[in-house]
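Structure tokens please, single chain.
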Amino acid sequence: MRAAWKLMPAFAAAAAFGLSAPAIGQDTYPSRVVKIVNPYVAGSTTDVLARAIAVGLSSKLGREFIVENKPGAGGSIGALSVVRADPDGYTLLFAPALVLSVYPQARTDAGYKPDALVPVCQTFTNAMALAVISGTPIKNVADLVAAAKSRPGALNYGHQGVLTIPHLAMEEFLQAAKIDIKDIPFRGEPLVLTDLLGGRLDVASLVLGSAVGQNIRVIGIFDETRHPAFPDVPTVKEQGYDVSLASFGGLFAPASTPAPILATLAAACAISAKSEIYAAVAKRAAQPTNYYADAAAFSTRLKRDIEAKARVLPRIKTQ
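Here you go.
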């Protein structure tokens, strides 16, 4: 996963979309390069999807959309940089909803509130996965629980950062299973995978898309139903623990961005997210078929997620 899938340059992809770049005047948005901040490391699932959507937006709107990685603090550093940017449509965020539903509610030093960014379009939904290295005797959740109970506090698990959904899902699972496994936060999932494959981690809590094509064993999925990319892997819920935290997200803009600019972005995103190029990348990232939602549906889902996380966070160990 350290190397992202190769994507064609934005303007070379225009023909593949069947889109012609419109003539852009100085007073027409966009009239210059647009930056999309991805608050995670290059090569992560979110990063790959961000670059795919940038290709489509560039092709549709006739100006280059570039992705800039600003990892740190589980995504809140990159999110805060967009919150503080001019609300002119030239600095956007591509991130999971947790940057609004989790960090502002869990951290007094987040620097922004849940309404500081507005949804433009949802372009991904991620299930979480429990994974171990292929050679381990741990073959399912029951084996993991038994191993943890036989050696309390001796096992460890890796995740992409404190308060990320993989971290929250695992901590809720540990509470449900009444076991103690030491958590080790990383700056992104490529590093988690490196240490898991290197034998330095006993288990990892990952975005499911990060497990595709890796020499690891997925032993459980945090979701309500099995995933078509891993049809033989039962959910954690099927294995006796009612934990199904998932992640969703897409494109966000600063809250005061003018409505006409938001409308332009939303229309372009709808086409880009449904294009063959993005759909192909999404499939490789283990996305469900219904990964896209418009701004209204995205906003409604975000509101529910903010309310749900307000109930969940007090129950979960985050330090």
